[in-house]
Amino acid sequence: MVDARQVAYLQALGVDVYVPRTAPPLQDEVAAELAAPALPAGSSPTPGAVARAEVSASGPNDASNLDWDELRAAVAACRRCDLHATRTQTVFGVGNRQARWMFIGEAPGAEEDKQGEPFVGRAGQLLTSMIRALGLRREDVFIANVLKCRPPDNRDPRPGEAASCRGYLERQVALVNPTLVIAVGRIAAQNLLATETPIAKLRGKVHSFGAQAWPVVVTYHPAYLLRSPGEKRKSWQDLLHARQLFGRLEQESARGGRT
Ligand code: SF4
Question: Does the beta carbon of 149 sit less than 6 angstroms from any atom of ligand 1?
Answer without folding.
Answer: yes
